[in-house]
Amino acid sequence: MPRLPAIMKTTAARLTALYLVLFTACAVVLVVYMTSLSSRMLVAQTRGTISEEVAGLAGAYRRGGLPHLVRVVEQRARQPGANLYLIADPNGRILSGNVESLEPGVIDNVGWTERPFLYRRYGERSNLLAGEGAGRSDRTPRHSALAMVFKLPNQMLVLVGRDLVEPQRFNDIVRRSMVVALAMMGIGAFLIWFFVGRRALKRIDNLSEASRRIMGGDLNGRLPVSGSGDEFDRLSENLNSMLGRIARLNEGLKQVSDNIAHDLKTPLTRLRNRAESVLGGKRSTREYREALEATIAESDQLIRTFNAILMISRLEAGKSTEATTEVNLAETVRDVVELYEPLAEDQGVVLSASIDDEAVIFGNRELIGQALSNIVDNAIKYSANANDTPQVSVGLKAEGTNVVLSVRDNGPGIPEAERERATERFVRLEESRSMPGAGLGLSLAKAVMMFHHGELLLGDGDPGLEVKMAFPRSGKSK
Amino acid sequence: MKILVIEDDREAAEYIRKAFDEAGHTADIAGDGESGYAMAEGGAYDVLVVDRMLPRRDGLSVISQLRTGGDKTPVLILSALGEVDDRVTGLRAGGDDYLTKPYAFSELLARVEALNRRGASKEVETQYKVGDLELDRLAHTVRRAGREILLQPREFRLLEYLMRHAGQVVTRTMLLENVWDYHFDPQTNVIDVHVSRLRAKIEKEFDTPVLHTVRGAGYMLKGG
C-alpha cells in the first residue's frame, strides 16, 4: 500500500476524489427524486384501485343489501393478495372482512385515511416480519396500509384498503441498488486512485529523487527518461537540456574565476611590490612619479583585462542584447587594415588586404571590428619573428555558404595540437610568454564568432598561422 | 566649469569631486536620482555626470526628464554595464557621452571638458585655426604658416577632431571613437602610431610643436 497522505497529494487522486463526490451527489439526488416520484405514483394508483373497489361494493349493497355485500366482501377477501376489507357496526365492532385489528380511530374517520396505518390480518404467522411488534406478544405482524372508509345508509361502516408493502419494497430496492452502485463507484475510484495515482506518484518521486541528487552536488546527473515520450518524458528532456546549459555556463564561470585567480594575481602582486619597494627607501620626486605612472599603466592593463573577461562572459552566456545591424564586412576589413597599417609599417610588417567579395551580413559591427583587430594585432606581433619579410594578409571571400574573413601571417604559427587550446581564456602558449598581452584576444574573437553563429578556425598559414572567421551567409544574414 | 556628479557611491563621488577641483573645476555631488534631478533642473551646471544605476530613480530617467523639460546641458553617463547596446540606449535616452566603469579619471576629465566645449558652440565650424596651423573643412586643406600640408583622409579627420578640441586633452579612446567610430579599447598603441605620423607631418620643418603628448592621458593640440 502506498502512503495514503502522499497519494492524496497527487493530482490524479484529487481529481478522482472530486469526481467521486460529484457523482455521488448526482446519484443521491437522482435516486431521491425517482423514489419520491414513484412512491407518489404508486400511492395515487392505490387510491384509484380503492375508489374502484368502493364503487363496486356500493353497487353490490344497492343490488342485494347487506347480506350480498358481506358475501362479495368475503369472496374477495379470500383471494390471494387481496385488498383489505372490513365491515363494522356503527360502534366499530368488526362484523366481517380479512382484518383482525386496526389502529384505533382509523375506522371512525369516514373518507380517506390521511396517512398509512398499521393493521393485522387473519391467519398470518409472526415469522413473516419478525421484528414488527414482537415485544408486544402479538400473534400476527402488522402492516401499513392506505384505506377509505364509507358509511352505508344503515350506519354500518365499510373499509376498503390496500397494503403499502409494494411501494415500500420498491423504495427499498431502489435504495439498496443505490448503495451498491455507490459502493462500486467508491471501489472503482479507489482502484483508479491506486493505479493511476500511484504510477504518477512513482514517476514524480523518481524525478524528485533525481533532482535532489543534482541539488546535492551531482551536477552531471540527469532526470530519468522512460522513453514513452509522454508528458513526463517531455518535461524530463526539457529539464535535462536546461541542466546541460546550466552546467556549461557554470563550467565557464568556474573557468573564469580560476583564471582570474591565477592570472590577475601576478600583475596585482607586481603592482603591490613596486609600491612597497618605492616606499621602502629614500627616493627622489622623479622616482616617485615614475613609480606612480607605472602603477597607473599597470592598473589600466588590469582594467582592460577585466573588461575583456566580462565581455567574453557576456557573449558566451548568449545574452544577445548586443544590437545587430547590417555590417559591411569589406568596410570593416578596410577600417581595421587602415587602423593597423601604420603600426605594421613601424614594425616592418607588410600588411595587405584582399577583398574578393563585398559581403554584407547581419551582426554587430563593433564586435566584429574588435575581434578582427585582435587577430590582426596578434598576427603583426607574431609575424615580426618571421624568417622572411614579415607579412600579414587579411582576406574576405565567400566559401560555400559562409563568408570568411581570414588573417594569415608568416610567423612561427601554432602547432596543430595546440590550436584548440589557443582560443581558451588566458591561455598563452609557451612560445608567446615573452609577448605582451593577457591572452584574451583569441578567446574574445571566438566568443564574438559564437555570438554571430559563426566559427573561429585556426589553420596552417604555411608558414605561420591562418585565423578564419566564418560567418554564415544565410541564417542571421539577410 | 561647474559640474554636477550624480553618483551613489560616496567614496567614488568624493574622489571625483576632489579631482575635478584639482583640475580647476567646481563639482557638486548628488547621492540619488531624485536630488540629482532637483539640482540639475535649474540648469546651473555646464556638464552633468550621471551614474546609470542610482537609488530612488535611475540615471536614464533623470536624463530623459531633463531633456523633455528642454534642458540641453551636456550629460556624460557612467555605467558599470559595458555592452554596446547599453551605450546605444544610454545615448538614445539623451546622454552625450558614455563611459564604462572602471575608468581612469583622466579619461573622465577629458571627456567632460570636451562636452563642455561642445555645449558652448553647437555648430561645427568650417575653419579651425590653432596658432599658425589652419584647417579648412570645405576646401579640405591644411596649412601651417601659409604652407600647405598634404594629409591622408584619416589624418585629416584626426587633425580636425584635435583642432575642434584644441587646448583640451583628447584620450586615445576618444580618438578611436570619434575618428574611426569604434568603441573598443585597442590592445596596442595603434592610435599613438597614427598620431605620431600626423605629428611628423605638421611639425616637421617647423620649429614649434603643436601636438603635445599628455602623459598617462592622451594628446593636446595647442598653439605656441
Give the termini separation of chain A: 63 Å
**Poorly predicted parts of chain B:** none
Strand content of chain A: 15-25%
Biggest chain contact: A-B, 33 and 26 residues
Shape of chain B: elongated
Entry keywords:
heterodimer; A: about 475 residues; alpha+beta; seven-stranded antiparallel sheet; five-stranded mixed sheet; B: about 220 residues; alpha/beta; five-stranded parallel sheet; four-stranded antiparallel sheet; 8 helices
What does the model show?
The complex is a heterodimer of chains A (478) and B (224). The relative contact order of chain A is 0.07. Chain A is rod-shaped and about 150 Å long. Chain A has 478 residues and is an alpha+beta fold. The longest helix of chain A has 68 residues, at 11-78. Chain A starts with a helix and ends in a 6-residue tail after the last strand. Chain A contains 10 helices and 14 strands. In chain A, helix 6 (285-316) packs parallel to helix 10 (441-451) and helix 8 (365-383) packs antiparallel against helix 10 (441-451). With 224 residues, chain B is α/β, with parallel strands linked by helices. Helices cover 41% and strands 22% of the residues of chain B. Chain B has helices at 10-22, 33-41, 59-68, 84-92, 105-120, 153-164, 172-180, 190-203; strands at residues 2-6, 26-30, 47-51, 75-79, 97-100, 127-130, 133-136, 141-144, 147-149, 170-171, 211-214, 218-221. Chain B has a 5-stranded parallel sheet, with helices on both faces. In chain B, helix 2 packs parallel to helix 3 and helix 6 crosses helix 7. Chain B is elongated, with a radius of gyration of 19 Å. The two termini of chain B are 24 Å apart. Classes of the chains: A alpha+beta (478), B alpha/beta (224).
